[in-house]
# Entry
Amino acid sequence: MYFLLILISACFLTSIYFLGYFTLAIALRIHDKHYFLGFGDRLFDFRIKGVLFTVGKFVPIYGLAKIYKIEDGFKKRPTHAWEFSDRPLFKRFLVTYAGVFTLLVGSLIIFISASYLRDDVYISKAEVNKYGVYPSQLADHYGFQPGDRVLKINGKDFERYDELIDPKICEAPGNAYTVTRRGEDVIIKITSVRISDGEHEPFLQLMVPLEIDSVAPNSPAEAINLQEGDRIMKVNDRTIYRFQDMQREFRRDLDGPTVLLIQRIKANDTITFSSEVTLDPQNRIGIMTRTPIQYTTKANSLGDAIAKGTRNTFINLFGQITGLYRVVGPGKTKGPITASSAFGDRFNWLRFWYTTATLSTSLVLWNFLPYPKSALWESVALVYEGVRKRKYPDSFFRKSLSLAWFIFLAQFLWVFVNDIAKLF
# Structure
């Protein structure tokens, strides 16, 4: 299922790539007279502004889509844009990257449409500060304490929780978090943020009560009549902020009953009481927990969608650029097996289009890297012609394509081995 969805995305993206390429090529008159799309026998013909297209068994997958020119009744390699030396250099450069630009525009349209169709769901500043924040080990290092309420970031108000989770926004000189702590405002400055590979938790988490979602039958929790909605405030007089805190206290308690401080809300009445419980042999109490967070839902206007979709497109693109160094890092690069999981366990149209837009930005980046079928090699030929004032040698171009395959295969082998290793 995963690979089928990837193939569908690839077919769609390849189609819009060639649509953009041929549209501009025909408009600027940089094209052959007769093209054959695919392989095998002719299925049908169509003509666009004097350019004849014959279609065979065409496989619209990037790298596999066969396109030939028909010359003297034979199929030949199509003429690259850079080879039309009688056409202006600038126009040939535009045609070279026409398909790439179309992919970028396609990604932009998908992200904008998804932002417009999907409500914005987030945790508001008021919800963040209802109970305060719980610092990660890194945040604790800079001086955050459990229960801090964040007032400002770099002297400015903020709207949502996800603005808090990247400490690098405050790394510049003069920038800082402003928090209130026990009635006093405190300035916390962030300098030289260096997050290690093992640091996966958000910089700041929400410090919300640990609320019981369900109680297992015949468990220690059922024995003391714990109920859904009860909140565990303390274990053996130690305040509990997260599920991990409760587990840690349970592991420490090896002698006799464990004392819980429980808060129970019935109607508009809140009751706080203590209860002793004997844990099971695995030091468990037999509950499932949840975090009682209220999310804010807001529909995006068209203007909001354009702004967010544009931002998502370029964040996605630049994120892939900055992640290129991971290609040489074991266990980091995502290959086809890992990437396929982005579609999820169940089909979802919105997730499908998000993933398609991400693949589109990947193909945009591909065309600026020394890979097979990349527009980079044609742009090298055009730059050479512009500087040397003569045509780029065909032998150089053929050698560059061989080099491209060597680079690609070496990298693919490295990525594939790492991808397989993640399955074990």
Observations:
- Residues 394-421 form the longest helix (28 residues).
